[in-house]
Amino acid sequence: MTRIEENEQIFLVGFMGAGKTTVGKALSVKLHRPFVDLDTEITNYLDSPVTDIFREKGEPFFRDTETEVLKNVLSENGPSVIATGGGIVLRDSNWELMNSSGKVIYLKADIDKIWHRIKKDTSRPLLNVNDAFNEAKKIFGHRKKLYEKADFTVSTDHLNVEQTVKKIQNLLFL
Ligand code: S3P
């Protein structure tokens, strides 16, 4: 049984560091679909890194741009694998865009595991604060219910990239 149509998009959502980009790239190879990374598209669109956009223009401006770029990506690309930014789930309009054009997969990972992956990375403006671990836990707590609105959830804690990709393929196509 197939749970996705050929013309539908595949969106990966999840917290920062959940592996959306890495898994998305590997999945796109397996499915012979183009890969699109939304943060990269935003960076190209404004010709500015995400950290600079947050610092110079603030989060609301970033969120407006994120929605605009999501819209553009959907009108410019056929069926792809799209890795979103961790905050895509915050806006209803993003859900409307994703739900009306494809299937949404939540890459679910334990916050302690995620923290180990992202703690040395300074490219995430929301976590460039004192006591970033507590901040990450707080943000994750606020968003948990939103991530769970996805069509499918894949727990990645005990899976490597290859196994995660296989699991998604099975979910969508078996
Ligand atoms: C954000 C996650 C980032 C990026 C921006 C905001 C968030 O993407 O979009 O820093 O609000 O969770 P990743 O999830 O790819 O780190």
List the helices and strands and how they pair.
Elements: E1 9-13, H1 20-31, E2 35-37, H2 38-46, H3 50-57, H4 59-76, E3 81-83, H5 92-101, E4 102-108, H6 111-118, H7 132-147, E5 152-155, H8 161-173
Parallel strand pairs: 1-3, 1-4, 2-3, 4-5
Helix pairs in contact: 1-8, 2-4, 3-4, 4-5
Structure in words:
This protein is 54% helix and 13% strand. With 174 residues, it is an alpha/beta fold. The chain has a five-stranded parallel sheet. The N and C termini lie close together (5 Å). The mean pLDDT is 97. Shikimate-3-phosphate is lined by residues 16, 20, 39, 50, 85-87, 124-126.
Largest sheet: 5 strands, parallel
Instruction: List the bound ligands.
Output: shikimate-3-phosphate
Question: Could you list the spans in which at least 5 consecutive residues all have pLDDT below 50?
Answer: none
Structural class: alpha/beta
Q: Could you give the count of β-strands?
A: 5
Number of alpha- plus pi-helical segments: 8
Shape: globular
Going across the biggest sheet, name each strand in turn: 2-3-1-4-5
What integer value in Å does the Rg equal? Answer: 15 Å
**Element-level helix/strand string:** EHEHHHEHEHHEH
Distance between the termini: 5 Å
Average of the residue pLDDT scores: 97
Strand content: 5-15%
**Helix proportion range:** 40-55%
